[in-house]
Amino acid sequence: MTPLLGLLGLGRRAGNLVVGVDAVRTALQAGKCFLVVIASDAGPRAEEKVTRLARGKGLPVIVGPVADELGRALGRPPVQAVGVRDRALARGVMDAGSAGQ
Fold this sequence. Notes:
alpha+beta, CATH 3.30.1330.30, 53% helix
């Protein structure tokens, strides 16, 4: 498991993630996300809905692993988008995401 997926798994257990395109959009609109991770194989519509809103709010967007891997790390079916609601966790995920690229 990559450091990025490990951190996201910890964030899920701590309740610091929002999972799924609609939930991430809602959290972004409410100002409750600090970072978005989008699956590398996310559909164009899902990617546009989440990425445009996050970037419009000045938030970073990381392209993560494929939806199957992302979902598996979170104990869920395939996941296209994840929002991080904790500032410190968002920094760690950004560091892990940039180290993996």
